[in-house]
Amino acid sequence: MPPVQYELIKECPRTKARAGILHTPHGSFETPIFMPVGTQATVKTMTPEEVRELGAGIILSNTYHLYLRPGSELVRQAGGLHRFMNWPHGILTDSGGYQVFSLGPLRKITEEGVQFKSHIDGSTHFFTPEKSMQIQMDLGADIAMAFDECPPYPAEFEYAKRSLEMTTRWAKRCQAAHTREDQALFGITQGGMHADLRRESARQLVDLDFPGYGIGGLSVGEPKPLMYEMLDVTVPELPKNKARYLMGVGSPDCLLEGVARGVDMFDCVLPTRVARNGLAFTTHGKVVIRNAEYARDFERLDPECDCYTCRNYSRAYLRHLYKAEEILVYRLLTIHNLHVLLNLMRNIRQAILEDRFVEYKKAFLDKYGQENHS
Amino acid sequence: MPPVQYELIKECPRTKARAGILHTPHGSFETPIFMPVGTQATVKTMTPEEVRELGAGIILSNTYHLYLRPGSELVRQAGGLHRFMNWPHGILTDSGGYQVFSLGPLRKITEEGVQFKSHIDGSTHFFTPEKSMQIQMDLGADIAMAFDECPPYPAEFEYAKRSLEMTTRWAKRCQAAHTREDQALFGITQGGMHADLRRESARQLVDLDFPGYGIGGLSVGEPKPLMYEMLDVTVPELPKNKARYLMGVGSPDCLLEGVARGVDMFDCVLPTRVARNGLAFTTHGKVVIRNAEYARDFERLDPECDCYTCRNYSRAYLRHLYKAEEILVYRLLTIHNLHVLLNLMRNIRQAILEDRFVEYKKAFLDKYGQENHS
Asked: Are strands B90-93 and B143-145 parallel, antiparallel or unpaired?
């Protein structure tokens, strides 16, 4: 039996939304779930205890970054990533495929793998499916991801087709190379923005019988409705008894739309990254804390939020810290943004369990405001 | 009765060290005490709860910085500094005198006050004793400090003499201008590195009957033995029933030497500032965490320390975070360094109470290593 199992608890009768439990070697976590990103073995600005206290069960960490620094072999020596970073709960590592894709002109793709240059020192490296597996086995996350090729947006049909086929071949090589029994290996479906290719990729990956599936190559610059369309054609191909993970998605509206289409897992740097740029999600939309209008605004960031930040600090204080470039503000906004998303996921799950997901989704989006840009 | 009272509990029979309690409107705090610095209304990288949990009772915040940003009037509107920054315990504000002194060529001193240019935007400002009082009353700390003139090191006898006399005249103006009854105003003694002037300044200030005394103009670049000499001549002039505060001093060895000479209160940016530069105090001296020797060192930062950082993270992890410029490392090293100093003060107090301060001091310094540079 694979070390990670998805248990379906409840389906929404009117959408594809579902509530479940993801069982991993480091705990069982309620889904749908949002996974905060800890790129370099730390969720930026936060201690692991704080991340856990906000309700996060699984975090994502990055194969590409940890391979370059401090090196996956060092992490293995340290007793694995859980111990190295003091996070005894769930961890998922991406495969490095997306980061290498993001390097653009710094990388070169062949059937064997991808050659790329380090963003840190320009040194040349070569990732193959086998190499990605070795690194991820060294890191020792609960869930490893297959090494995929993520086509850019927009990508021609022919390119996206070749890419999905190579991704399938690479997925097989990943399965052959992956030998760690306390770690699950998830496949990643691709197919660009072409419905036929999305279906084809999903079918090929499902044939390989992974214990869970990432949906890759979305949130790469396409309009949101197009992303939703791709989800609409992909998710029905995936087995009901396995987790579905929409990679790199994390704005409140996309989380709701993803859940409605049957997604169980999400990750995104958005809540932590924008926090460091002084931007907060609130129930009434976004707040840019440096704005002069908040200079003497002694109210809380979000009147309806009960996170640590909102309970204890005013917008005026947060603005002061931001203008003064004080580290505390990056912490406080990160806490708030993660709370908003993790709390949203809890509320979504509760709504699914109580057969009122559709109403909850509508009420949330009416207040928050739709965002149709990607 | 002044709102801040010093209660003497126990004197060391062999040195001038003493244990006491400082009673303030926001709590009573055991002395000798180290006050972490929260320059811009935040102890850098830390939440107030974390600072308190480490054992800090009083923090210092800066008049000069808060006057420039966000403005003391705004802090008053927010309900005062305690509320603005979510710190319900003791606060002491400096007078701005030292910061203005530090600006060097950006300032011009007259009998009336000091004209200076902002380090933020170059705008021109004028601080007088009355202005410093107004700002500090707006901020609403438990303890305000008199506006003084801090001579540079080295300073000629004549300069230091004129400076101490002006500081006394300014101290009287501060007393006249200070009207807030829930806030104590401490005087600051000066006198450069001249024993006679140190005594003279202390006597003049004592005549003005402040409820507590800062010892200013030390730790400005002079050798440590010279600073200790100045303490030796200053402290005996100060009344036993009032707190003595050595300003801007915070290395472990200086804290021990200061306490031995009768000092009750200290503040310093050192533990928090050096933390952000990757430097940790340990019981065996300093550790520069970026050093390559720690890359695969999976031991704790200080084997004898039980702070949060030492309990949960290895040197290898801290080094990784530092190399990756992750904010968490600044937090973890700040926690550790503050713990070391606050724990040192607790141990010092306990040793005084148990008549073994001299032995404790020797044992600590033998292990830590003397630092004779300033």
From this structure: parallel
